[in-house]
Amino acid sequence: MKLDNKLLTTLRQEIRAGKDEIIIPKSVKEIPARTFSRSNVKKVIIEDGVTKIGEDAFSFCGNLETVIIPDSVSEIEKGAFMWCTRLKKIIIPKNVNLISDYMFHQCHSLEEVIIKPGVGEIGQYAFMYCQDLKKIIIPETITKIGMCAFYECLSLPEIILPKNLTEIGDSTFYHCLSLSDIAIPDGVNKIGQYAFYECTKLKKIYMPKYLSNISICTFSRCENLSNITIPNGVIEIGKFAFNECCRLHNITIPDSVEYIDDRAFANCVSLKNITIPNKEAKTGKNVFESCWSLENIIVHSYKTFSTLDFFDKNIAVFDIVKNYYLGKFKFSNEDINMFKEYIKESKEKKLLLHYTNGDKKLVEFMIYEMETILTLEDINKYLRNVNDIEIIALLLNYRNENFKYKNSLDELSLDDENDDEKGNQKKLIL
Fold this sequence. Notes:
Blueprint: H1 5-16, E1 21-24, E2 30-31, E3 43-46, E4 52-53, E5 66-68, E6 75-76, E7 89-92, E8 98-99, E9 112-115, E10 121-122, E11 135-137, E12 144-145, E13 167-168, E14 181-183, E15 190-191, E16 204-206, E17 213-214, E18 227-228, E19 236-237, E20 250-252, E21 259-260, E22 273-276, E23 282-283, E24 296-299, E25 317-320, H2 333-343, E26 350-356, E27 365-369, H3 376-380, E28 390-396, E29 403-405, E30 412-414
Parallel strand pairs: 1-3, 2-4, 3-5, 4-6, 7-9, 8-10, 9-11, 10-12, 12-13, 13-15, 14-16, 16-18, 17-19, 19-21, 20-22, 21-23, 22-24, 24-25
Antiparallel strand pairs: 26-27, 26-28, 29-30
């Protein structure tokens, strides 16, 4: 039976009279929704035999410090203990399959959570804003952790995720400022957007080998993250995925990655080396924006870059691995606009176009004074008489000692191989 009106009235009267402890007898099967919501009760003992705690049953009980829940309880509905701001410890019984949405939302003093084996899922916002949470035991039976489940659990230093876990929802560990180390089980195939956003003490993370996508802002602003291996199998790296990972030095993108979205590594100010092996990989805009320490980029194809937005003005070395497939490059108005934006900050104000013919033999170079190039037609007119030419790379401030060029639209001189018999450099007139 549900908690009958007579018993409910009696318990409420006792609480109002100053009694701070109540016992829900075993004869009661269900505690109805909002039964004790906003009451002054401090301790609740639920006897074995009760099977269900209704929605918001003890919500906003600001004085509640202790709750004892028996294993007979198999269902605890949404928000049952939310805003119980003095609750310090809770044990979730084994027969509860789901820790419902908002169950302990805003329980600011909650320090320890023990989830017994048998529980299968942690719902959305379940422990959101549990700012004092320091310890949580998650059993191997948990397969899914919902969106914002541990959002801003500021004191949580570590968490051991169960090996049967398959999904981590959006913003699950958002702004968990004390979280320093976490291993994601190999069974996880989905990590949501902002999942570890601004976990500023996170230094390393093991990523699962079956992960196929790194979502938007997943590790953004993890400013102490210095070591990360992206598993081979990841196909896409989302927008801002590693934005502002200030201590990230080197990273190798696996061959499986086909697309790196806008600003994926923007503001990684310590990043020095990047390798992108997949010759078919593409990038979005400003992928390495404000990566001031970036020195080396190794790719397998110029087709990786949709526009010069990929680059930043301080790149020292750009290496394209030999023997890759060459395709045609077509200028677009978007490219021209991007050129102009970079030229505003470029000291040398030049664009180097590096050409090869069909048999991959280097035949020509071209320098443009970018201040004079204003339209798509301005570029295309210089390509008008070039047959079977493919552009390898478009670079600003390309630094290579083998090239010496003049401040002219139509002249470029090369070392060694283009010298005449007297040692004078020849000019390529375009």
